[in-house]
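Budget justification note: compute hours in this period were largely spent on complex prediction jobs such as the one shown. Inputs:
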Amino acid sequence: MNTIESSGHNIYFDTKLAPLAEIIEKGTYSNIFVFADRNTAEACLPVFREMLDDFSGFDLIETDPGEENKNIDFCIGIWKTLLDFEADRKCLMINLGGGVITDMGGFVASTYKRGIDFINIPTTLLSQVDASVGGKTGIDIDNVKNMVGTFTLPQAVFIEAEFLKTVPKREMLSGFAEMIKHGLIADEKYYQELKAANYQNITTAAIHRSVEIKNEVVTEDPLEKGKRKILNFGHTIGHAVESYSLSKDKKPLTHGEAIAIGMICEAWLSHKNSTLSAEELAEIRAYISSVYPAYKIKEKSFDKLSALMQSDKKNEHGNILFSLLESIGKCTWNCRVAESDIRESMEYYNLTYVK
Amino acid sequence: MNTIESSGHNIYFDTKLAPLAEIIEKGTYSNIFVFADRNTAEACLPVFREMLDDFSGFDLIETDPGEENKNIDFCIGIWKTLLDFEADRKCLMINLGGGVITDMGGFVASTYKRGIDFINIPTTLLSQVDASVGGKTGIDIDNVKNMVGTFTLPQAVFIEAEFLKTVPKREMLSGFAEMIKHGLIADEKYYQELKAANYQNITTAAIHRSVEIKNEVVTEDPLEKGKRKILNFGHTIGHAVESYSLSKDKKPLTHGEAIAIGMICEAWLSHKNSTLSAEELAEIRAYISSVYPAYKIKEKSFDKLSALMQSDKKNEHGNILFSLLESIGKCTWNCRVAESDIRESMEYYNLTYVK
Ligand SMILES: NC(=O)c1ccc[n+]([C@@H]2O[C@H](COP(=O)([O-])OP(=O)(O)OC[C@H]3O[C@@H](n4cnc5c(N)ncnc54)[C@H](O)[C@@H]3O)[C@@H](O)[C@H]2O)c1
Ligand SMILES: NC(=O)c1ccc[n+]([C@@H]2O[C@H](COP(=O)([O-])OP(=O)(O)OC[C@H]3O[C@@H](n4cnc5c(N)ncnc54)[C@H](O)[C@@H]3O)[C@@H](O)[C@H]2O)c1
Ligand SMILES: [Zn+2]
Ligand SMILES: [Zn+2]
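Corresponding output:
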């Protein structure tokens, strides 16, 4: 599979980490740290070591898994661990895990001693097609997502299908939502291909195409001044629903499940406020609702959801701005939408989703 | 006084903040925050407001003064305050204070929502000639200085002699050490001029020259891969002495006082390990010791000081690397020095300093 060149670094596909072995062999790093969570230390670290010929010349930094641990307290712990290891500026951090690990590991690395090198080895579908591409690092503050972070690029990204074998089904489905999004915002043909695919058996070719789409967008607009915002399709409402679900539901939605909901709502907004046709809207709704489990957005949560959207960091000057589809495969951004439309789009989701 | 162009931003001198008034008038920022400590809120904020025609369209974020508060807990507090104000990515942070405020405010701004704009208005001599130039932001972790930070440039820097009027004498002397350093590493003529000057009555012309020197160095090597290290002259031993004094002395050394000590030690190392002549060494010692109060580096602290130098973030692969003078006005970097020489240089300081 072709390597993708991103800004100043490469994204490798199914190389069995061969280029990483070369980097390590060069020996220019004073120390190598592998950052993982308990699950990836168990499921992925053995594979990692095997790919690198039983490499053991690293120290493991392990954290508890889950979004609730993507916080500043864990960062402080990691900074102090690096200090305890007397890690200098020439050390390397390898982030081995899902988006929580690559986001938080990237943030810690980009700020420790004002920046050390790091490499991302994303091990979930979501992190392979999304989190590990584009240079965004971040952590949550007071449960508000990614409130603190940097734009910092890794030295390399390694995408290995091998790691996906142990990813739970629900996590696969979560990452698959971002792939659907990539199709919807940038490539109708790819979207149609995904419809024919099975999310439990994703090919590296499909991942490659998703990474390609995301990479093109972020390379054109690294600091999210404009076009990069199309990647937020489904995320304005989706994020709010996700936060709400996290704080209220016994079994909260995954990110992808929330984004699936957000994409249906925002497809409705695209029809109402942009040029997405009624047929395309119906087709998006039908497909997404055939893949993702049903969910009810409680009417009494609408106010809280609006407040959450208000405080979303993508806003400017207090306006809630949406990225909307002009058609399947084409997306525009910075669209203002009436508050009543936002509510209606959620009602639409609730009405039409229940099969 | 001429404006200095730095990477992508300007450093203004004695403009009475006129360009800032223009930036504010443009009104492109959604919110303006002024970040200050208790002392600068009292001594500098009235001057700031007066210069801006009684401007009041900002929210004040105030912290406790002092290096001990340049820590992650205060950063978390500021991030949360920004969240409470619903600050979006288009807000502006104005850091009004000494190096603690510009360092910590810069770090908070460079990471809040992955980076908002900030402007530095340094109000101590040290921060005018040093901390506010070069894009280093940072905070301390476990009392280890600047262990976490970023390289991020402000939108502008405003240097106003007016603010220095309320700076305590000892703080003026502290900043003056960095000016001496600039002369020693880059400009013999400037060094001679400083010798004729009075640190309590620093001219903007002298500050301008210091900023010019620092700016040239950091523009050439923004990420401190090489030449920028000459700015560390006096700082390897100086930082260790400063940390030690902070933890042990009843009335700890200021940064500049510690750097003055460090410069005498490292001038000795420059004579021993580089080409600084015996006459130049004697002249540096004589001048610095005529300006700075005497101090004794306790023999029993040498081991601890070595350990502190070891853990200094400027090291690579466990070697303590020094920036050494080749002559007055010329500096080289990445010099390895025997541990015994480091000790001897401190003995030299102790022996010769006491008048
Ligand atoms: N930086 C970006 O541009 C960006 C983009 C999208 C998402 N994100 C972030 O990514 C995070 C979500 O990523 P995620 O879904 O990968 O979450 P995650 O890292 O929490 O991984 C999900 C779960 O799967 C486990 N896991 C990971 N790899 C595994 C494997 N190979 N086998 C078995 N279990 C494995 C993890 O331990 C975790 O329990 C969020 O914090 C989100 O903000 C960032
Ligand atoms: N980023 C860099 O490149 C860089 C370079 C050098 C130093 N620094 C950092 O700068 C810090 C030291 O800077 P500093 O010496 O300015 O310390 P500081 O900010 O603590 O200021 C010293 C004292 O003077 C007070 N003060 C500030 N301005 C005043 C004024 N105009 N009138 C009256 N009182 C005033 C402050 O409240 C404080 O009590 C350190 O943390 C150091 O690490 C950073
Ligand atoms: Zn997403
Ligand atoms: Zn200094």
